[in-house]
């Protein structure tokens, strides 16, 4: 259309645009934390320690599940609010800004969780030797892959 009249569905298009460009951020953050869990499991498997690996794994998985429930539940709630605003563009603009602030905060929290887990694992298991030379080499390879993928 070459006319200057606004499209009747322009508000819907604007909201859908925000969601389509916002959704991958949450997926990437979830994947980032999943990769952190893989690193933690490899760390625990490579060390010869007396701790219950299964209990530690369950804690990590419960934490990951809780993080994803809050992440995607909050995301869906914000998206529903965005579409429920109707023609109230002022509130919709404020909600869009809130979405961007939340994405920034979630990205920051994911990095803090990763760094904290690295420090906790390194300090807690620093006195335990590697299971074997092969386990040490495998862990070194996984560490480089995780470091490369997370930067």
Key features?
151 residues; mainly alpha; 4 helices; 81% helix
Helix and strand arrangement:
Elements: H1 10-46, H2 53-84, H3 89-124, H4 133-149
InterPro entries: THH1/TOM1/TOM3_dom
Keywords: Membrane, Transmembrane, Transmembrane helix
Protein name: THH1/TOM1/TOM3 domain-containing protein
How would you describe what is shown here?
With about 150 residues, this protein is mainly alpha-helical. The chain has one domain (about 10-150). Helices cover about 80% and strands about 0% of the residues. The protein has helices spanning about 10-45, 55-85, 90-125, 135-150. Helix 1 (about 10-45) runs antiparallel to helix 2 and helix 1 packs antiparallel against helix 4. It is elongated and about 70 Å long. The model has no long low-confidence stretch (mean pLDDT about 85).
Helix content: over 70%
Distance between the termini: 44 Å
Rg from Cα? 21 Å
Count of separate DSSP helical elements:
4
How many domains make up the 3D coordinates?
1
| SSE pattern, N- to C-terminal | HHHH
For the sheet with most strands, the description reads: none
Q: Strand pairing plus helix content: what structural class?
A: mainly alpha
Indicate the overall shape: elongated
Give the overall average pLDDT.
86
Query: Spans of 5+ residues with little confidence (pLDDT < 50)?
Result: none
Strand content: under 5%
Number of strands: 0
Domain THH1/TOM1/TOM3: 18-150
Transmembrane segments: 26-44, 65-86, 98-121
Protein name: THH1/TOM1/TOM3 domain-containing protein
Pfam family, one: THH1_TOM1-3_dom
């Amino acid at each position: 259309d070459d006319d200057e009249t606004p499209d009747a569905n322009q508000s819907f298009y604007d909201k859908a645009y925000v969601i389509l460009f916002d959704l991958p951020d949450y997926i990437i953050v979830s994947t980032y934390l999943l990769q952190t869990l893989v690193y933690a499991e490899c760390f625990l498997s490579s060390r010869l320690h007396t701790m219950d690996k299964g209990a530690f794994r369950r804690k990590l998985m419960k934490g990951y599940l809780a993080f994803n429930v809050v992440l995607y539940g909050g995301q869906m709630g914000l998206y529903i609010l965005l579409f429920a605003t109707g023609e109230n563009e002022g509130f919709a603009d404020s909600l869009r800004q809130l979405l961007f602030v939340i994405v920034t905060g979630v990205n920051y929290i994911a990095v803090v969780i990763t760094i904290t887990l690295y420090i906790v694992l390194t300090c807690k298991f620093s006195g335990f030797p590697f299971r074997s030379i092969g386990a040490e080499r495998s862990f070194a390879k996984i560490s480089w892959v995780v470091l490369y993928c997370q930067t």
